[in-house]
Amino acid sequence: MEDSDQAVSKMKDFLYIYNKMAEMCFYHCVDSFNCRELTPAEDSCIEKCSSKGVAVNHKLMRCYIDIQPEVISKRTEEIQKQQNKLDSIKSTNS
């Protein structure tokens, strides 16, 4: 059950990022609603904008993967310190 919740959460995160990027590129690149098709300039702008968005996302994910073990280690140390503190308080009260 937990794996499916995690998969849903990851999908929501992905869709949020994708939708924000699409919205940003749309507002930045689409100038006119006079025709159904994108103009060549709009099409080129959308292509560049979305490529940059994907590249930035990949770079951020690489940084996150590099930093995440350190963050987990520090958090584990903090939890261990808190647990030790609670254990010492319990032992002095006993």
Automatic annotation (TrEMBL):
InterPro entries registered for this protein in UniProt: Mito_inner_translocase_sub, Tim10-like, Tim10-like_dom_sf
Coiled-coil intervals: none
Example GO molecular function: metal ion binding
Domain of life (superkingdom): Eukaryota
GO cellular component labels: mitochondrial inner membrane
Biological processes, Gene Ontology terms: protein transport
Presence of keyword Glycoprotein: no
Domain Tim10-like: 7-63
UniProt keyword list: Chaperone, Disulfide bond, Membrane, Metal-binding, Mitochondrion, Mitochondrion inner membrane, Protein transport, Translocation, Transport, Zinc
Membrane topology: Peripheral membrane protein
Compartments, record wording: Mitochondrion inner membrane
Gene3D superfamilies tied to this protein: Mitochondrial import inner membrane translocase subunit tim13 like domains
Function: Mitochondrial intermembrane chaperone that participates in the import and insertion of some multi-pass transmembrane proteins into the mitochondrial inner membrane. Also required for the transfer of beta-barrel precursors from the TOM complex to the sorting and assembly machinery (SAM complex) of the outer membrane. Acts as a chaperone-like protein that protects the hydrophobic precursors from aggregation and guide them through the mitochondrial intermembrane space.
Family: Belongs to the small Tim family.
Written domain comment of the UniProt record: The twin CX3C motif contains 4 conserved Cys residues that form 2 disulfide bonds in the mitochondrial intermembrane space.
Complexes and interactors: Heterohexamer.
PANTHER family linked to this entry: MITOCHONDRIAL IMPORT INNER MEMBRANE TRANSLOCASE SUBUNIT TIM9B
Name of protein: Mitochondrial import inner membrane translocase subunit
Name of the gene: AVEN_54090_1
